[in-house]
């Protein structure tokens, strides 16, 4: 029996400028998406359309989106601090 969502892939996204929107294309077929800042400082805002970053991940927290099937989706993020690394883990 094949289990879905157990093949992890990791990547990072450099957020070099504070309060600037960056994008990450979620791989098609992703069943679980986890993302957070590498450091414990800085708040990340995110959304699913450019300019619509209306959700916040407070400093030190992780966002875990599970039980979904991403197709043609782009994640838009920004951080209130410069020179941060967003760690991203996807499961297919």
Task: Characterise the protein shown here.
With 92 residues, the chain is mainly β. It is built from no helices and 8 strands. The strands form 2 sheets. A 4-stranded antiparallel β-sheet has the order 1-8-3-6, with no helix packed on it. A 4-stranded antiparallel β-sheet has the order 2-7-4-5, with no helix packed on it. A hairpin with a 7-residue loop joins β4 and β5. The chain is globular and about 30 Å long.
Note the topology.
Blueprint: E1 8-15, E2 22-26, E3 32-37, E4 44-47, E5 55-57, E6 63-65, E7 73-79, E8 84-91
Antiparallel strand pairs: 1-8, 2-7, 3-6, 3-8, 4-5, 4-7
Give a short synopsis of this structure.
The protein is an all-beta fold.
Helical percentage: under 10%
Oligomer: single chain
Number of helices: 0
Global geometry: globular
Beta-strand share of residues: over 45%
Structural class: mainly beta
The H/E string reads: EEEEEEEE
Distance between the termini: 15 Å
Compute the average pLDDT: 93
Task: List key phrases describing it.
92 residues, mainly beta, 0% helix
